Amino acid sequence: MGIHCQATRPMTARTVQSALTCIDALSAEKQLRNSPRYTVMAMANTLESTRQAWVIRGQSRSHRTGTWPSWFARNTGEKPMLYLHSATSSAQLRALSSETEQRGILCNDIETRPSPSLPLWLASNLHCTPYDPASGEEAQAIVLAGLQALYVDGKPGFYYLALHDQNDGPRLHPQDRDDALKGMYWIRREPVGDLKVRLLGAGRAFEEVLHAAQLLETDWSVQAQLWSCPSYTRLAREAGAAERWNRLHPMAPRRSCHLRDCLTHDEAPVVAVTGYPQPIVDQLSAYVDARFVALGAGSVGASAPSRFWITVLALKALADDRRIDAGIVEAALHRYRLK
């Protein structure tokens, strides 16, 4: 399901059957509203019970990467692999993905606060399809899609999920799953007023985006269209691929992309937020026609932007578009004690 073009891997009938058994077992589980971390841990337990997948827990001595060559030698034939890890640096994850031949579904517990280099490496690694789910429902959909793509369809590469323990993420309805896997889906109804912004949030940062939407409406009478974005990188890769194709085929009908399909029908400013460094969101800027504001760790402070900064910078985008007076931005800075 990645955007880069590589040949599919031939899957044996045994591998495909193992993956389908895993998908059936996971799909039969009742989905409760839980955090991404809790949800994936529960899915790992289910996969272990099927005996059709390799579930590797990072703290298990028998499955440390140093012992993997001999361990894999005893387990010939590929089976679905779910690896639960707590990598804090790109070097750790690079070593891990090398040992797995850049295959499998790698799930990283980000409560350990990984270094800024980790998401940047993931975004630049074309073998990786990285996701930052905001809810357990998003995490479940991504794991199921990874099993289908990697072990049934034979797509190359590996999936990466960043897991956190917040359990108040957005609901993912069945009709929105495909959009979520493409990178973004719509959470809140279309605003009815003339004064509006579009707020995009990923992973743990989604909660602050949700609170910012409430502040905009209650404090400043600005309505927000709300989007959850499980993968900014996937959105950017698809948009870049469409742009390259259009450049090389000037006589053919233009190709679109999911990002443009979601955002092209409106001129309201777009504010995209991540808990990772800002360059993760900067990837989208070339493909958004409206005023675009990228926010992440380092944008206004060392950590991810708060709901108050998101609110203020959404107001500033409206002021820059001359839709509100700049004095409102100044008032918001003072109201939230940011100045």
UniProtKB/TrEMBL annotation:
It comes from the Bacteria. InterPro entries: PDH/Transketolase (IPR051157), Transketo_C/PFOR_II (IPR009014), Transketolase-like_C_2 (IPR055152). Residues 183-306 form the Transketolase-like C-terminal domain. Pfam families: Transketolase_C_1 (PF22613). The keyword Lyase does not apply. Keywords: Pyruvate. This is Pyruvate dehydrogenase. It comes from Pseudomonas spelaei. The lineage of its organism: Bacteria, Pseudomonadati, Pseudomonadota, Gammaproteobacteria, Pseudomonadales.
